[in-house]
């Protein structure tokens, strides 16, 4: 059996930035850290060189360049789909979310505002609300969201929020528990897809308050 080729990890933003010889070491520096920046390299020389550079020179450039040069590779959004988005008021901390049917722009649901929320929580609840609604209707159409974080939470069936529960947002945390339980107890065939804002423009479910 061939021996697995070693990887070397650069942590630009983490508890202790540096170059690490294993993922276990790098993970200690990045897990739970707000907005970590890290990447693996095939050789230590490449990792050491990259560590001296700005992280944006190494993270996300391939995907960004492809979509900018050949946006047609992504293709148009599927019209027979449900698109969701959330809005968070920075002044009040209130959050709300909604979902629309893309082909007709018909609003299918609008929830909130909920006090002391976050945008990521709203995006997560919006996706689960859409999945539950479509499951009830026996529909397998896709659900679009522009939140990579919320899509990741849905895949893991867990809202990995650092928001603290208070008396004001108790209802919101109850909704999170119910959403997580729904994901764990239901099987759905609906693809949960990323709304490609850079190619398609603003999310149609956006609240328009930017």
TrEMBL record:
Q: Which reaction does it catalyse?
A: Endonucleolytic cleavage to 5'-phosphomonoester
Q: Which domain of life is it from?
A: Bacteria
Q: Which UniProt keywords apply?
A: Cytoplasm, Endonuclease, Hydrolase, Magnesium, Manganese, Metal-binding, Nuclease
List localization entries: Cytoplasm
* Keyword presence, rRNA processing: no
- Major location (coarse): cytoplasm
Q: Which residues form a coiled coil?
A: none
Q: Which cofactor does it need?
A: Mn(2+); Mg(2+)
Cellular component GO terms, alphabetical: cytoplasm
Give me the residues that bind Mg(2+) 1, please.
85, 206
- The chain positions of domain RNase H type-1 read 76-210
Entry GO MF terms: metal ion binding; nucleic acid binding; RNA-DNA hybrid ribonuclease activity
Binding of Mg(2+) 2 occurs at 123, 146
Q: What does this protein do?
A: Endonuclease that specifically degrades the RNA of RNA-DNA hybrids.
Q: What is this protein called?
A: Ribonuclease H
